[in-house]
Design a protein that fits this description.
Shape of chain B: globular
Structural class of chain A: alpha+beta
Number of domains of chain A: 3
CATH topology of the largest domain in chain A: Ribosomal Protein S8, Chain: A, domain 1
Order of helices and strands of chain B: EEEEHEHEEHEEEH
CATH superfamily of the largest domain in chain A: K Homology domain, type 1
CATH class of the largest domain in chain A: Alpha Beta
Largest sheet of chain A: 5 strands, mixed, barrel
Order of helices and strands of chain A: EEEEEEEEEEHHEEEEHHEEHH
Number of helices of chain B: 4
Strand content of chain B: 25-35%
Radius of gyration of chain B: 19 Å
Number of strands of chain B: 10
Oligomer: heterodimer
Strand content of chain A: 25-35%
Distance between the termini of chain B: 50 Å
Structural class of chain B: alpha+beta
Strand order of the largest sheet of chain A: 8-9-10-12-11
């Protein structure tokens, strides 16, 4: 027996189905019933019922790639804010090897890094690493914060959504699994990308989003091009 | 023409409500930009703002739990929320309400999902007209859901009591002050578990049972408004 439709909006405590179904993410079992524990959209796959949250905090998982900001430099490690209830640390040995060097020569407080979650232990200490392709420090660009559950929506199927934004705005965009997005390009293009990303976050739970993003991009870019053209050209004396 | 009402049985309360009638209720979710979750609630003359931050990093080692999150509540009345200006800052009453609010919400939250972190709940009473502790809990639980915090159920709270010799639902400030007894409760409506039950004043066991059942019925009505408030926040964008 199921009491809700696929993609229905539910709130904590709503009864979703009885014991014929399996509990997925965002649900729990009580008295032979499966209930929602979150505000979100129901997703039914075979006999598994889950709730995709509309709002959440990032919980670090081993193997994720995240964007973090250095908040503190300690004797042999950096502390990083990874937009999560748990802060991460990056051991100095990961960067320097066995060599002893001044930590603030490599990264300083406020620097933004692209990292991999190497390990999360039982007490949620998050060990970060820089080993891997493309990982390291960002230079310039802007950061945009979105809800981590909306990251898959922003990326789209096989990167379709994010690639469209990249192509249209000619910006470099990197999305961390922790909901931090780094964008670098021409300043006005960064603004366009920011607007579009915020719109995707607002409307992540609706359908037909890709088309709306395409329309919004062409509208915003059209405006940008007009603005650029309006800049008076220097008079050319004959 | 003069109409004289002789039969006052239906209008036994000062504001013309029936004995089992709530004050007009309005709840809105997601009203604050910077908070992780928030709610605004009006019931009768009460105006209440609730904000939730977290789960977030906890720096106070003394209260940190290695196996679960802690919930911290602050109930605060604005100086202008009552007739006579209230001295700002925590007092005996607001410290008590902060504690019972945390206690009422705690059983509903899956705290074990977020070890070593904290969930902070702030309840600001902008205008008070009786029953603020219940309204505060109701608003806080909407704000928790809005923050995406996993919960067993939406805690809902409501008071019943006795005034002028009648057992009544949702006491106003006047009925609370002049009346004989006040029974605020908080429940988790699906399972019917009670997470808060207080009482002050004088009431017989029979009347207490009656008041408790009345309050539970009131909670169920408010619960529907809570759910609608959360759904409305996202509903507009769906259409």
């Amino acid at each position: 027996m199921i009491f809700v439709e696929d993609k229905a909006l539910v709130v904590p405590g709503d009864v979703l189905a009885d014991e014929e179904y399996h509990t997925g993410r965002g649900t729990f079992k009580e008295d032979n019933n499966i209930c929602s524990s979150l505000v979100g959209l129901v997703a039914i796959r075979d006999k598994k019922i889950s709730v995709i949250p509309l709002q959440s905090k990032y919980i670090p998982k081993r193997g994720d790639v995240v964007i973090g900001e250095v908040t503190d430099i300690r004797f042999s490690m950096w502390n990083l804010d990874i937009n999560s209830p748990y802060s991460g640390f990056l051991p100095a040995s990961d960067v320097f090897g066995k060599e002893k060097r001044d930590l603030n020569k490599a990264f300083n407080v406020g620097d933004v890094l692209f990292l991999r979650v190497v390990d999360v232990d039982e007490v949620k200490k998050v060990k970060l690493g820089l080993k891997g392709r493309g990982l390291g420090k960002f230079r310039g660009g802007i950061l945009i914060y979105i809800t981590p559950t909306k990251v898959p929506r922003l990326i789209g199927k096989k990167g379709s959504m994010i690639n469209m934004i990249k192509d249209e705005t000619k910006c470099d965009i990197i999305v961390g699994q922790n909901g931090v997005v780094w964008v670098k390009g021409e300043p006005q293009m960064e603004r366009v990308a920011e607007k579009v990303i915020n719109m995707i976050e607002d409307q992540a739970h609706t359908s037909g989003l890709t088309d709306r993003v395409r329309n919004m991009l062409s509208e915003l870019l059209g405006k940008e091009i007009e603005e650029v053209e309006e800049v008076p050209e220097p008079d050319v004396d004959e | 023409m003069i109409i004289i009402l002789t039969n006052n049985n239906d209008n036994l309360r000062a504001d013309g409500r029936a004995f089992d009638e709530l004050r007009p209720l309005k709840i809105e979710a997601g009203v604050l930009e910077k908070a992780d979750g928030s709610a605004y609630l009006e019931i009768g003359g009460n105006k209440i703002l609730a904000a939730v931050y977290g789960p977030r990093e906890l720096h106070v080692r003394r209260i940190m739990r290695p196996d679960m999150a802690v919930i911290r509540c602050r109930y605060n009345m604005a100086p202008f929320s009552v007739g006579e200006r209230k001295r700002p800052g925590p007092d005996r009453r607001s410290v008590e309400i902060s504690k019972i609010t945390a206690d009422a919400l705690r059983p509903a939250i899956f705290l074990e999902r977020f070890p070593r972190s904290t969930i902070d709940v702030f309840i600001e009473i902008l205008e008070a007209e009786g029953g603020t502790r219940c309204a505060g809990i109701t608003a806080a639980s909407v704000a928790l859901a809005d923050a995406g915090i996993p919960m067993k159920d939406l805690v809902v709270s409501c008071a019943a009591g006795k005034a002028n010799g009648n057992v009544i639902l949702d006491l106003s400030e006047e009925e609370d002050k002049e009346g004989e007894a006040d029974v605020p409760i908080a429940i988790m409506p699906r399972s019917g578990e009670i997470s808060l039950l207080q009482m002050d004043g004088h009431i017989t066991p029979d009347e207490f049972d009656k008041a408790l059942n009345l309050a539970i019925e009131g909670c169920k009505q408010i619960s529907e408004a809570q759910k609608n408030a959360i759904k409305n926040r996202y509903g507009e964008e769906n259409g």
